[in-house]
Design goal:
Blueprint lengths: L2 H38 L5 H14 L3 E9 L2 E9 L2 H8 L4 E2 L5 H8 L3 E3 L10 H7 L6 E9 L2 E10 L7 H53 L5 H14 L4 E8 L2 E9 L2 H10 L9 H8 L3 E3 L11 H6 L4 E9 L2 E10 L7 H70 L5 H31 L8 E3 L1 H12 L7 E6 L7 E3 L1 H17 L4 E10 L2 E8 L33 H11 L3 E6 L5 E8 L4 H4 L1
Length: 617
């Protein structure tokens, strides 16, 4: 080869390298520009599509570039670029066309494969229908690369050229790069939309949860009045359902009454208010919901031939209506209706929310009913308790008068005639006297208990030295103890003073010591006392018959006996311990017991050294 020929070949090679370098740089610049658009607009793929087809026109000379997508059974253009405006118009008229394998785009997207047709005018090919569709545009060749995600084409990028022939491998690779970038834009948009949808769902869920919590708060703070609950439900439904108006209706007898109304149009609300009370009408969402006991949705009032006052509804500002019944014990007691200005289905989450609000309204109604019933019962019990107290007071007076006469006359007869009557008669008179005393004791105990329960017991606090009072109580019961029973005093003489009612404390201690003496036939009875911080604990321990575990709390109830046998040897009214515990609690203390059958019992009285009620007395 001659030197001139070598120089020419070298120069040609150099020119080819320069062209390849220029193309690479231009392709790199186009890629950079497209990626920049993708990064700036992650939620909108259209600018990316426009940038891709514009770059494609620069890189593919004398060609048009289009991005399309499947839309049902058709293929529609998303973006088209062409240097020749007239040819661009002819190319635009090609779209849309059917998504079938008779078209090049259809085959590429349905089969997820790259198709490069070198001559669109060559008859007898697999894409005859598609080629005839493109022929009027004046293009001769077409290459289509599908945009494939997870094995399915979501679109395609196509290059059509005025001259016949295949694309080079380098050009196909470049077109595949554009396809990948378009796919990135589509995927970014999908992810962004999903993220926004999730954020909206979370925000809506939070709003709904907040509204539900607010309604529950209103329910708890308004137990006697349902109106604040109804109004809160109406406001929340209005805000969360994008409503024009919300009506909460209650069924009273055979008529629906407007319980709470809210909306954006005062005139419409006033018209609704004037329309009630009225019988449930099956043509309205509210009436149908009550009559069928089901949620009713009217997508468009204009499409409901039997909907009353359709034109009035539209002029009032709503086209779609949702009615949710308020259900209690299987029957409808009212309804919530929501009207929106636009036609269409209500989202499932809004229907579920309205059903929750309906349940809350029923809870509020039931709470109010129960609370009112409870108040009525409480008033009835208070009246009955006053009558009982008055009855017992009157009866105790009426009973004590003849009993005192029996006691007095029996003592006189015994004193005056004991030496003149037989021993058996004297014993019978003693029994009459003992029975009369027992009856007076029972009447007094019953009256004391009634006064305590009615809150009419009077506490007169004073400073009391415990040791002398304990000694006095112990000496009082000592003569009653059985032979061989030892009474022990185990407390210090310098116990700190108490601020209590001395008479009530004396009554409690005598009751505890009297029970210990009554149920202890041998062994010992111990009376202990000690301070425990700002309280004093007084214990009465005996070695008597003891109390079964299942009776430990029962002995503090009215008319309960430790010995319940028909042949019991231990008497009593069964009121002493009940009165003692109530008196202890009135003075800020407590009375408890521990015991085991056959091993005795220990009753512990705890009282504050300074009863707080003493400051008020």
């Amino acid at each position: 080869m001659t030197p001139p020929q070598l120089a020419t070949d070298a120069d040609a090679a150099l020119q080819a390298c320069r062209r390849e370098l220029a193309e690479a740089l231009e392709q790199q610049a186009a890629t950079r520009e497209i990626l920049s658009v993708i990064s700036r607009l992650p939620a909108d793929p259209q600018p990316v599509f426009e940038a891709i087809v514009a770059a494609g026109v620069r890189l593919f000379r004398d060609a048009a570039v289009a991005i399309s997508r499947p839309d049902g059974d058709m293929v529609r253009a998303l973006a088209i670029a062409e240097a020749d405006a007239e040819r661009a118009q002819r190319w635009m008229r090609v779209f849309p066309f059917p998504l079938t394998r008779q078209y090049i785009h259809g085959a590429a997207m349905l089969d997820c494969r790259v198709i490069d047709v070198p001559d669109l005018l060559e008859p007898g090919g697999a894409f005859d229908v598609g080629q005839r569709n493109v022929a009027p545009s004046g293009y001769r060749a077409m290459a289509v690369v599908p945009l494939v995600r997870e094995g399915r084409a979501v679109g395609a990028i196509a290059v059509v050229r005025a001259q016949p022939g295949h694309l080079t491998e380098h050009q196909l690779a470049m077109l595949q790069t554009f396809a990948d970038q378009a796919l990135i834009a589509i995927e970014n948009t999908r992810l962004s939309n999903e993220r926004e949808a999730r954020n909206r769902e979370l925000a809506e869920a939070l709003e709904q949860q907040t509204a539900t919590s607010e309604i529950l708060r209103v329910i708890s703070s308004s137990p006697t009045d349902v109106q604040p609950v109804f109004e809160s439900i109406a406001r929340a439904s209005m805000a969360l359902c994008g409503a024009h108006s919300v009506n909460l209706l209650m069924l009273e007898g055979d008529l629906l009454h407007a319980a709470a109304l809210t909306g954006t149009d005062a005139a419409s609300l006033e018209a609704i208010r004037r329309a009630y009370p009225r019988a449930p009408d099956p043509h309205f969402a509210s009436g149908r919901a009550v009559l069928t006991r089901r949620t009713v949705a009217i997508v468009d009032v204009l499409a409901e031939p039997d909907y009353p006052m359709r034109e009035a509804a539209v002029s009032g500002g709503f086209r779609s209506v949702l009615g949710v019944p308020l259900m209690r014990d299987g029957r409808a007691i009212g309804a919530i209706t929501v009207g929106r200005p636009e036609p269409g289905r209500f989202p499932d989450r809004q229907i579920a929310l309205l059903q929750t609000f309906a349940d809350q309204a029923v809870i509020a109604i039931e709470n109010t009913r129960l609370f009112t019933e409870l108040q009525d019962k409480t008033r009835e019990l208070e009246v009955a308790n006053r009558h009982k107290t008055a009855f017992l007071a009157n009866m105790s007076h009426e009973l004590r008068t003849p009993l005192n006469a029996i006691l007095g006359f029996t003592r006189i007869v015994l004193r005056e005639t004991r030496a003149q009557i037989a021993q058996k008669q004297a014993e019978n008179l003693e029994k009459i006297l003992a029975s009369a005393r027992h009856l007076v004791s029972l009447i007094n105990a019953t009256l004391d208990l009634t006064r305590i329960e009615a809150g009419r017991i009077e506490i007169t606090p004073s400073q009391v030295l415990p040791a002398p009072l304990l000694d006095e109580c112990l000496r009082s019961v000592e003569p009653l103890a059985a032979d061989g029973v030892r009474l022990d005093a185990r407390f210090e003489a310098d116990l700190p003073p108490l601020w209590v009612d001395a008479e009530k404390l004396h009554q409690i201690l005598l009751n505890l010591l009297g029970n210990a003496v009554k149920f202890t036939e041998r062994g010992r009875i111990a009376l202990r006392a000690a301070t425990q911080g700002d309280r004093i604990a007084i214990e009465v321990e005996d070695s008597g018959i003891g109390i079964p575990p299942d009776k430990l709390e029962a002995v503090f109830e009215e008319f309960e006996q430790v010995d319940v046998s028909h042949t019991r040897a231990h008497g009593g009214t069964g009121l002493g311990l009940a009165i003692a515990r109530r008196l202890a609690r009135v003075m800020g203390g407590e009375l408890t017991a521990v015991s085991a059958p056959g091993h005795g019992s220990t009753f512990t009285l705890t009282l504050p050294l300074h009863w707080s009620g003493a400051d008020e007395a």
